[in-house]
Amino acid sequence: MVSEILEGLMRALALIVSGDRTLIEVTLRSVAISGLATILAAGWSIPLSILIGLGKFRGRFLLRGVFNAFLGVPTVTLGLVLYLLFSRSGPLGSLHLLYTPWAIVLGQAILISPIVVSFVTNTLEAVDPEIRSLALTLGASETRAHLAVLRESIDGVFLAVTGSFNRAIAELGVALMLGGNIRGVTRVLTTSIALETARGEIALSIALAAVLMLIVATVSLTMNLVQRRMNT
Amino acid sequence: MDKNRVIVILAIGLIAISASGVVYILQPRAEQGKQALVVSTTTSLFDTGVLDEIEEVFEAENSIDLYFISVGTGLAIQHAKRGDADMILVHAPSQERAFLEEGYGVCRKIIAYNFFAIVGPEDDVAGIRGLPPTDTLAKMVEKGRAGEAIWVSRGDDSGTHSKEKGLWASAGFDYAALRDEDWYRESGTGMGKTLQIAEEFQAYALTDMGTYLKYSEEGLVALEVLVGEGEELINIYSAIAVSPSTNADANFDDAVTFIKFLVSDEGQAIFSDYGVDLYGSSLFLPAVALLREEADPDVVGWIEDFAYIEGSECPPEYRADQQDLYG
Predict the structure, then answer these.
(1) How far, in Å, CA of A118 to CA of B178, rounded?
(2) B191 with B207: CB under 8 angstroms?
(3) What is the pLDDT averaged over residues A51-79?
(4) Chain B 94-113, CB below 8 Å of chain A: which residues?
(5) Does residue B188 sit at the A interface (CB-CB below 8 Å)?
(6) What is the DSSP code string of B74-138?
(7) B119 has which bridge partners?
């Protein structure tokens, strides 16, 4: 077992050093798709979190509960539901999104939205309410006051965004169901890992996983560094 | 550093990343400008890698982009029915017949065959080595009920699973009842994983030869072929296009082009050569010349018995005016 993992790691190193074209292509595609999904999800989830976390309206606890529940949605199930939606005989079939990278982007964005919403809402609520009232007393508009609270909880926002990117790039179900693992079009790191495992190419499979872990680690580290710069 | 400034810099960075991402994702398709042909295929063809080779040769000669979606035979047919695939490559004649009769499929061609095998531990506790398939299964039930042997089934409605159900029926057993017995285990997963599970339990399983040879060669399983070759274990792969009259959106013309390639001498040679250098024998045997020339009457007879529909690989009413496919 140890020898297989070691062989996989050596293989990973060899592939990276030699600049293997397929590996680079698949890796870039993974980063692009999951990066876009994260930006998209952050784009609609952060404003929604402000609404839920700082707003005062009926049903906001229910809404939070719903998002918390969807933290645990199985990726294959989400993939299946979206497949039925995007299928040519499904309600959005005419968009011809199925088996394109865009379908995966949308699917992953939906998958990680609950993570962003739950985490950001939580940190927003944890910020001292004095800050908001102080900003308002100092003559800030409602929007500006909200931004002030958001700035105070920036650490939590970073964590939410980093975590959701990592979840997106490491998930398999949505990419497989909506992308179809088509070579040169929708093949990403996780679907490659699943394929090579099924093909019995254990070393290659572990090599791909090592690359995936490397990306996740790099992204987390970079975000950490940026965060530290901001806090000093 | 000022927080606002960092946020601005970050935002610019993110926009740059997303813009390059958009360009990157869009680029390959825009550049090629090729027609896409979506082919839903059984895993046993795809996982062996033979389709990668076919894709390479075919795409070099045609301006068609092959999109292979690798799923079980059951799901491949579902995809095609829902309009999400232009054609299918499958290996379950009974499901194929229904697909044609329901009006979804046309232009069926038998492209290749090989044999399923029953594999098990080297010491063969159940003592099935060399028995005919039906006797093998009777023995499996006997030894299984005595607590001496375990059977691992795919249990996933794949072509291989369909075959297994058919074998139980022809051996006179009720598959639905067997499922609940202790010695009968369903893996619910692909062939490779199922072989590994069988290995773990030192159990018996039905496998396609392609996956078995690959896993055995890589040293991933040590199970041995105990029962192989013979009429009951034949495994026949067909290509079927989605009917343009059922689904006007289907890329029918390119599907026909691809089927013609698969049955051409060039396409057939890829099947017969694939894997010879790695495994010492080919994983798939070409079927077209065999059926045309009746080179091996035994095998031809088995294919006719098992995979022909009303005496032909595709009855005339399902040929969609593509007579030249049937020479």
Answers:
(1) 47
(2) yes
(3) 90
(4) none
(5) no
(6) HHHHHHHHHTS-SEEEE--HHHHHHHHHTTSEEEEEEEEEEEEEEEE-TT-TT--TT--HHHHHH
(7) B205, B225
Of the candidates A156, A60, A63, A56, the one whose C-alpha atom is nearest the C-alpha of residue A114 is A63
Architecture of the domain made up of B6-114+236-326: 3-Layer(aba) Sandwich (3.40)
Tokens 């040879």, residue located: B213
Average pLDDT in chain B: 90
User: Do residue B1 and residue A151 have CB atoms under 8 angstroms apart?
Assistant: no
**Domain spans, chain B:** 6-114+236-326, 116-233
CATH topology of domain B116-233: D-Maltodextrin-Binding Protein; domain 2 (3.40.190)
In chain B, alpha helices (H): 3-32, 43-46, 50-61, 73-82, 93-101, 133-145, 159-170, 175-178, 191-201, 209-217, 252-263, 265-273, 276-279, 288-293, 297-307
Taking the CA atoms of residue A115, residue A121, residue A123 and residue A126 in that order, the dihedral angle to the nearest 10 degrees is -150
Inter-chain contacts counted by CB atoms under 8 A, chains A and B: 87
- The residue in chain A having the minimum alpha-carbon distance to the alpha carbon of residue B4 is A151
> Looking at beta carbons, which residues of chain B come within 8 Å of A202?
218, 220
Are the Cβ atoms of B3 and A31 closer than 8 angstroms?
A: no
Backbone angles phi, psi at B103, to 5 degrees: 90, 5
E runs forming strands in A53-107: none
Calpha distance B289→B292 (Å, rounded):
5
Nearest one of B197, B229, B250 to B296, comparing CA atoms: B229
CB contact under 8 A, B3 and A230: yes
Cα separation, A60 vs A58, whole angstroms: 6
CA atoms within 13 A on the CB side of A127: 26
pLDDT score, position A229: 79
Identify the CA nearest to B261 among candidates B237, B243, B288: B288
Q: Is A171 helix (H, G, I), strand (E, B) or coil?
A: coil
Domains B6-114+236-326 and B116-233 share a fold: yes
Burial class (CB in 10 A: 0-12, 13-18, 19+), A115: buried
Q: What is the mean pLDDT of residues A66-86?
A: 93
- In this complex, is the C-beta atom of B47 within 8 Å of any C-beta atom belonging to chain A? yes
CA distance A206 to A10: 10
Model pLDDT, residue B31 = 44
Does ipTM surpass 0.85 in this model? no
> Which has more confidence, B120 or B230?
B120
The sign one gets for the Cα dihedral A184, B57, B81, B322 is positive
pLDDT tens readout for residues B273-313: 998 988 888 889 999 999 999 889 999 999 999 999 999 99
Residues of A in contact with B24 (CB under 8 A): 28-29, 32
Helix (H) or strand (E) holding A115: helix A101-126
A197 pLDDT more than 70? yes
CB within 8 Å of A222: residues ≥ 6 apart: none
Residue B153 CB neighbour total at 10 angstroms: 22
Task: Confirm if B119 and B196 have CB atoms less than 8 A apart.
Answer: no
Phi, psi (deg, nearest 5) at residue B90: -140, 175
